[in-house]
Amino acid sequence: MNVLVFAPHPDDDVIGCGGSLAKHVNAGSNVSICYLTSGDSGVRDANRERAAGVREVEATKAAAELGVQDLHFLREPDGFLGESASLVVRLVNLIRQVRPEIAYLPHAADDHTDHIAGHRVVMKALRRASGPWLPEADGEEWATSTILGYEVWTPIQRPTYFEDTTDVFEQQLSALTRHESQVIDVPYADMLRGLAAFRGSRLGSSRKAEAFEVLRLPSSSLTG
Ligand SMILES: [Zn+2]
């Protein structure tokens, strides 16, 4: 099975669905991660170019901890992610190249402007990839059958899917610590422990879990 993850910034993938990704790898799936920005405004005292370099190295190390090597850095500007024709074309081409059965992306109301914009542009690309509506794009049409919205900054109000990540949680935490430039400023490990325990409580005592919103593509090309 092919799995494709869309992350507005390096580390969103690990926090939002890192446990699920480790499980996909363990099950023999091919996992690819697409970073929409390289988090290039997120490193203290570093200009965008240097910050992007630092964060792409960190993302590569973190993904390796989860067993993922196929990474795609689109290098949109951190903090200014938006919808452009060229970005949609690049996303559609990637979707048609990877041909994922499952795609992960931020849920629609995750409270960061890049996450909200990322949700919108990726949903549009998933829709456009499935039909003949983008003449500039390459590749054969591909409809992604399962689309899951993950949470980073805003818990999903009514999750519609839970993944038990108890057995891979330490691996996920270890991957998160590879984002060294981030964990020095924000207590991400505490955040992830709390979120995983909160979601795991739905599955039983001492469980860890990730929560998702099962998403559907719009059925009308007018909204795609
Ligand atoms: Zn983010």
Provide a brief overview of the structure.
The protein is of the alpha/beta class and 224 residues long. The protein is 40% helix and 19% strand. The mean pLDDT is 95.
Folded structure, characterized:
This protein is α/β, with parallel strands linked by helices and 224 residues long. 40% of the residues lie in helices and 19% in strands. The chain contains 7 helices and 7 strands. A 7-stranded mixed β-sheet has the order 3-2-1-4-5-7-6, with helices on both faces. Bound molecules: zinc ion. Zinc ion binds at residues 8-9, 12, 112, 114-115, 152.
Structural class: alpha/beta
- The rough form would be described as globular
How many distinct beta strands? 7
**What number is the mean pLDDT?**
95
What compounds are bound to the protein?
A: zinc ion
Q: Secondary structure elements and their pairing?
A:
Elements: E1 2-7, H1 12-26, E2 30-37, H2 48-65, E3 70-76, H3 85-98, E4 102-106, H4 113-129, E5 146-150, E6 161-164, H5 169-177, H6 180-183, H7 188-200, E7 209-215
Parallel strand pairs: 1-2, 1-4, 2-3, 4-5
Antiparallel strand pairs: 5-7, 6-7
Helix pairs in contact: 1-5, 2-5, 3-4, 5-7
The structure holds zinc ion.
